[in-house]
Amino acid sequence: MILVFGGAFNPPTKAHKTIFETLMSRYQPSLFIFLPVGSAYPKPELIDFKHRKAMLEILTNHVPSVLVSDIEQHPPFKGSVSALDHFKIQYNEPVKFVLGLDNLLDLPNWIEYERLLKENQFIAIDRNGSAKDKILKHYPLYQDHFDVVSLDISTASSLFRKDPVRYQDMIEPKVLDYIYKHHLYGV
């Protein structure tokens, strides 16, 4: 099985590392793929893809069974559903898509979201104990497509972006060094 963890990773935090380590231990995938959104993704404050990719590689210490994919950096962007299709064909293994509660609730705004739900399996990261209820309420036909993994995580990339000095403890030291070296996020 392959796990694909999508997101902006702007920047990758200790929470992302905790999710990665927890899922590696729990699922023991043959491959763990980080799928950062491309630079063209319409998200405020999104730094260049090359930096987010480099920071993810630092965060995972270049573990051989980890790939930081650049598929969403290459136009045209056809959505996560297309990336998952690609990985299923390329690796010929089942794929589970990892997403947080914020993305879970935003799925109806995604490209081909109905096909995404119908044809894929998911791992929902639950920070506050409400993911199962949200899945049942919003996606009752697909509730069996979701595993829920509860983690007590308070770290958020958005907090770091607002005040990098105050929230620098949310970032792994080597990633923080990279941020300072490249003067990212106003530091």
So what's the CATH class? Alpha Beta
Number of self-contained structural domains: 1
Count of alpha and pi helical runs: 8
- The CATH topology turns out to be Rossmann fold
- The proportion of residues in beta strands is 15-25%
Mean pLDDT score, rounded? 93
Gross morphology is globular
What multimeric state do the chains show? single chain
Which regions have little confidence, pLDDT < 50, spanning 5+ residues?
none
CATH architecture: 3-Layer(aba) Sandwich
Which superfamily, in CATH terms, is the homologous superfamily?
Answer: HUPs
Order of helices and strands: EHEHEHEHHEHEHH
Described by strand count, sense and barrel closure, the largest sheet is: 6 strands, parallel
Which terms would index this structure?
187 residues; six-stranded parallel beta sheet; 8 helices; 39% helix; globular
TL;DR?
The chain has about 190 residues and is α/β, with parallel strands linked by helices.
Summarize the structure in words.
The chain has helices at 14-27, 49-59, 80-91, 101-106, 113-119, 131-138, 157-162, 173-181; strands spanning 2-7, 31-36, 66-68, 95-100, 121-126, 146-150. It has 8 helices and 6 strands; from the N terminus they run βαβαβαβααβαβαα. The model has no long low-confidence stretch (mean pLDDT 93). It has one domain: 3-Layer(aba) Sandwich (Rossmann fold). The chain starts with a strand and ends in a 6-residue tail after the last helix. By secondary structure, it is of the alpha/beta class. A 6-stranded parallel beta sheet has the order 3-2-1-4-5-6, with helices on both faces. α1 (14-27) links the parallel β1 (2-7) and β2. The protein is globular. Pathway: Cofactor biosynthesis; NAD(+) biosynthesis; deamido-NAD(+) from nicotinate D-ribonucleotide: step 1/1. Catalyzes the reversible adenylation of nicotinate mononucleotide (NaMN) to nicotinic acid adenine dinucleotide (NaAD). It catalyses: nicotinate beta-D-ribonucleotide + ATP + H(+) = deamido-NAD(+) + diphosphate. One of its GO terms (molecular function) is nucleotidyltransferase activity. Its EC number is 2.7.7.18.
